[in-house]
Amino acid sequence: MENLDVMVLRTLRDWRAAGKRALLATVVRTWGSSPRPIGSIMALAEDGSVVGSVSGGCIEDDLIYRFTQAYSGKGEAKAIPSGAPSFIKYGITADEAHRFGLPCGGTLELLLEYDPDEAALSQLVSALEAGQLMRRTVRIADGVVALAPADTPSDLAVTPEAVVNTFGPEYRMLLIGAGQLTEYLATMALFSGFSVTVCDPREEYRGAFNVPGAKLVNDMPDDVVKAFRPDRRSCVVALTHDPKLDDLALLEALETDAFYVGAIGSRRNNEARRERMIEHFGQTEASLARLRGPIGIYIGSKTPPEIAVSVMAEILAVKNGVPLPRDMDVAQAKNQLAVSANDPGALVCGVPGRDAVTGG
């Protein structure tokens, strides 16, 4: 699944190009709990079609009712307005919060833009598809939109004159190794909105790999990392258990701005990897500080899909800037449980057991 913002903006562009009336709704403020974060967008066409989300569904239903469905029992329809943008609040009272499915005490405010300009939407979508971070400024007085490339992501800003929202290209994931675990992790990443590339020079693994939507390449992993050019919206995960494939790729990834760099393996294997990198590749504890391993959060994973859930959860937490409790750390949890090195349930040669995430 592609990046949700790009999907919404592309669909809205296509509606406008086809001559349909439509609106763009953006969450600009929240108070208390909110089902969707500030900056979330949805588009609504005159026929009631919706893409994107600003809530759990009830606010979307209300917007459809307001602008495309009957306002009275006689079936009279109210058209989508035109002109300058407007603001609308939901959940101001306890009754409204309950009606619209907002959490207790939750309130959110939307900016509604009517019939956004198709040319500006096309320009924005093209830039995002090309991997450019873009800043979109909407003038509140008349809805005129200004677009400009952005160097860094930033939170949505509201002033008396304008609303400024930054749209970034989709998050990307590069997976080293095309084994069974990779299939599950790639699938989860795709439905989480990541673009996924899988690298494996081993023909026997590539031949069995089958995840629609994931790009599969066969070059050496360190070369693929260089060509991939990871940025702050990228993560690199090594999953082969083969130092010849994993180590050089990880070293290349650590030289980039990737927000997450990690490798599968046991506590023992990850410690051995660090020792190799320090002894043979001139690394230091400081230069390896960003290298994650054992990866994942501790959920007692036993099977490849459970391991993938564990790893994906950690990646999403890091992406969203959520610190994980220390007792969720795999190594810490295993140390506390005092799992012995010869635990018969540990991961050996890729066979999952009690310590499937880490290998013991």
Automatic annotation (TrEMBL):
InterPro entries according to UniProt: MoCofactor_Util/Proc (IPR052698), XdhC_CoxI (IPR003777), XdhC_Rossmann_dom (IPR027051)
Chain ranges of the XdhC Rossmann domain: 173-315
Residue intervals of the XdhC- CoxI domain: 15-71
Superkingdom of source: Bacteria
The protein, known as: XdhC family protein
